[in-house]
Amino acid sequence: MATRPVEIGPAGLHTARAIEHLRLVRSLTQHQLAARCTALGRPMSNTALSRTERAHRRCDVDDLVAIATALGVPPMALLLPLPSVSSNDRRGC
């Protein structure tokens, strides 16, 4: 019997948006951020990062720590609500 994939919940959706937001604020492409994660010892393709940002792939704790480190923020920054930003800085969030 085939199992259904576990759906991504509200915290996972928020984390996906936070990753994309911080990546854009830092003017990084998905390829650049994925390369940073790989350089930190957590191999990641830009496809995997894209799927994570679109909430088509779950972000496990090891990915979360590597992405946060690559973005220069503590992992908690990807889990907590985004700070208020001006409408010019939202870029799709």
TrEMBL record:
<dbReference type="InterPro" id="IPR001387">
    <property type="entry name" value="Cro/C1-type_HTH"/>
</dbReference>
<feature type="domain" description="HTH cro/C1-type">
    <location>
        <begin position="19"/>
        <end position="79"/>
    </location>
</feature>
<dbReference type="InterPro" id="IPR010982">
    <property type="entry name" value="Lambda_DNA-bd_dom_sf"/>
</dbReference>
<protein>
    <submittedName>
        <fullName>XRE family transcriptional regulator</fullName>
    </submittedName>
</protein>
<dbReference type="Pfam" id="PF13560">
    <property type="entry name" value="HTH_31"/>
</dbReference>
<dbReference type="GO" id="GO:0003677">
    <property type="term" value="F:DNA binding"/>
</dbReference>
